[in-house]
Amino acid sequence: MYITDLYGQKKEVTDLDTAIAQAENFKDMHHIPPLESDKERQAYWRDIYKKLIQLKSKENEQSCR
Fold it and tell me: Fewer Cβ in 10 A, N or C end of the chain?
C-alpha cells in the first residue's frame, strides 16, 4: 500500500496499524516552548494520519465483502 504525502512523495505502508499509531503520536507533538516549525510538522503528520485512517477504512470495507 502507498500514500502520497503533502510534498507529493509516495510512502510505502507495510504495517498499517503501526503506521497509524506512529502518526497519531507525531501529529500533536511539539517543542516546549513551541517552535514555528512545529505547525508545519503537525500539519504534515495530521495529513498522514488522515490518509492512513482512510486506508484502514477501505481495508475494513473490503474485508466485509
Answer: C
Extended beta strands in 1-63, E state: 2-4, 10-12
Domain total in the chain? 1
Whole-number Å distance between alpha carbons of 55 and 25: 18
Give pTM, 2 decimals.
Answer: 0.89
For the stretch 7-40, what's the b/e string if a residue is b when 16 or more beta carbons lie within 10 angstroms of its beta carbon?
A: eeeeeebeeeeebbeebeeebeeeeeeeeeeeee
Q: Cα separation of 2 and 57, whole Å?
A: 14
Write the pLDDT tens digit of every residue in 28-56.
999 999 999 999 999 999 999 999 999 99
